[in-house]
Structures are given as structure tokens and as C-alpha cells.
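Everyone, carefully examine this protein record:
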Amino acid sequence: MFSIGEHVIHPGQGVCTVTGFDEDAPTPMIILECKQGHAKTRMMFPMAQSDRLHPTISREEAENLIEHYDDLECDPFTERNSTLEESHFKQLIKEGAPETVRVAKTMHERIRTAERHDKKPSSYYTRVLKEARRRSLEELAVAIGCSEDDVEARLSAAESALDASVN
């Protein structure tokens, strides 16, 4: 079970903080607070489904993920139907890091590849990249104990170094 103040990954919301428990309710609940953008949202999550929540990655795992960003493999999944392909990546995003970082890297690479071939990238690439990036920044910032801006700067530097080595 989780404890108050612990950060967890909610499959639909991303990083949330456990703020309490309501064990007297007809259905016992975990009280979570999530932050998306500038707003904070409180929500109730059934304790019976607590196995769908999991802790954020550790500081060591987060540092290692950023440090070895260039070694992270892109996801090779492809499907002729872009809706099914998008669903695959959205499902991976629900797992939290390192999958969110892998999905963001995959979408970034697919966009770059399309642009190198003078093609317009699929619009779903941008949608999935935005969500994967948001969740990656949130979780890595919580794990490392720094701001999302600091994590974004570190990931951008890693992407730039990778882009330079590809060109």
C-alpha cells in the first residue's frame, strides 16, 4: 500500500501525490492530487484497484535514463492503421518512465525522419509526443527533485547531441 506524501503514477493522469485515504466510504478510496499545467486536481481512486498505481522511478533510475538517453531504443512498433498505432503508444505512456521517455524519443525521431524526407509527419506523432514529454518531465522532475524546466534542459541537450551525431 502507499503512504501519504508518496508520488505514484496514475494511468490516466500521470504523476499524482497520495494525500489521504477514505476507508470509511462504502468503497474505500485513496485520495490523490495531480498537477497538470498550473492546476491541481484532487480525485478519489478505489483502493481495490490500487494495483493499477505504481511508484515513480527512483532518483538513480531517472539520472541513468537521462545520462544514457542516446542508448534508449526507439519503439519499432508500426501498424498500417494509424489509430491502432497511436493506441499502442498511448498505452505505453500509462506505464510511466522509462516508457514515456522511449515513446517521446520514438515520436521525436519519427517526426525528424518525415521532415528529412520532405514529408508532413502524422498529426498523431505530435499529440503523442506532447503527452509523453509532459509525463516524462513530471516523473523525472519528481524523481530527481528538481524543476521540470531543469529536466527539459537536460533532455533537450541529450536530444541535440543525438541529432548532431545522426546528421
